[in-house]
């Protein structure tokens, strides 16, 4: 079975500072990786995903993440945060079916979430 | 209009009551999922369905049941609610098949309180 660990439950940061939210995973098979964001009182929205190709992926709102296979990590970064980035962020993985041309099993396993609070 | 809708958005119920949470989608996706969110635990999968005739248990299905009435509708039932089922419940949908984006689209959530 796969698991996802988000290393920080809360990250406070000042506006315009850089931020990194850390995510490590474990899996016996290949996985696809995702970052979702949940703004207060809302559902989850996809920030970015890694399926294949370049290990540096760019998402919405200026966020990017780097897939590191050797360290089984998928850390999320933003060079300069805004007050509006205050939200909870979830890392998630989906197992890839072996010998199925890259088809995913579809189910997501989520990390525990990291609450990012941006202070003025 | 939202692609994934959930009703009700908020519900308070008493221990022992039966309750149904409903989810509808207009995205035309075959796959639908129910998750619950608890503080500090992230989202955990309760049940998932890959088509109308395919329903599967997730990691925390005890105390829950589901019904896939149509491609667009997926309901979650608590047969006899208990206080530790107090949580935020999300429905999600996704497409399937090789080469697709695998993004899951989430509804706005149902906040359930069991007293």
Please tell me about this protein's structure.
- The complex is a heterodimer of chains A (120) and B (115).
- Chain A has strands at residues 3-6, 10-14, 19-21, 23-26, 31-38, 44-50, 56-58, 64-68, 73-78, 87-95, 109-110, 114-119.
- Chain A contains no helices and 12 strands.
- The termini of chain A are far apart.
- The radius of gyration of chain A is 14 Å and the shape is elongated.
- In chain A, strand 5 (31-38) and strand 6 form a beta hairpin.
- In chain A, the strands form 3 sheets. In chain A, strands 2, 5, 6, 10, 11 and 12 form a 6-stranded mixed β-sheet that branches. In chain A, strands 3-9-8-7 form a 4-stranded antiparallel β-sheet, with no helix packed on it. In chain A, strands 1-4 form a two-stranded antiparallel ribbon.
- Chain A has 120 residues and is mostly beta strands.
- With 115 residues, chain B is mostly beta strands.
- Helix content of chain B is 0%, strand content 57%.
- Chain B has strands at 4-7, 10-13, 19-25, 31-38, 42-51, 54-57, 64-70, 73-78, 87-94, 105-106, 110-114.
- In chain B, strands 2, 4, 5, 6, 9, 10 and 11 form a 7-stranded mixed β-sheet that branches. A 4-stranded antiparallel β-sheet of chain B has the order 1-3-8-7, with no helix packed on it.
- Chain B is globular and about 40 Å long.
- Chains A and B meet through strand 5, strand 6 and strand 11 of A and strand 4, strand 5 and strand 9 of B.
Summarize the structure.
The complex is a heterodimer of chains A (120) and B (115). By secondary structure, chain A is mainly beta.
SSE string of chain B, helices as H and strands as E = EEEEEEEEEEE
Please summarize the sheet with the most strands of chain A: 6 strands, mixed
- Characterize the largest beta sheet of chain B: strand count, sense, and whether it forms a barrel: 7 strands, mixed
Envelope shape of chain B: globular
- Indicate the proportion of strand residues of chain B: over 45%
Which residues of chain B sit in consecutive blocks of at least 5 with pLDDT less than 50?
Answer: none
Point out poorly predicted stretches of chain A. Answer: none
How many strand units of chain B? 11
Helix-strand makeup class of chain A: mainly beta
Structural class of chain B: mainly beta
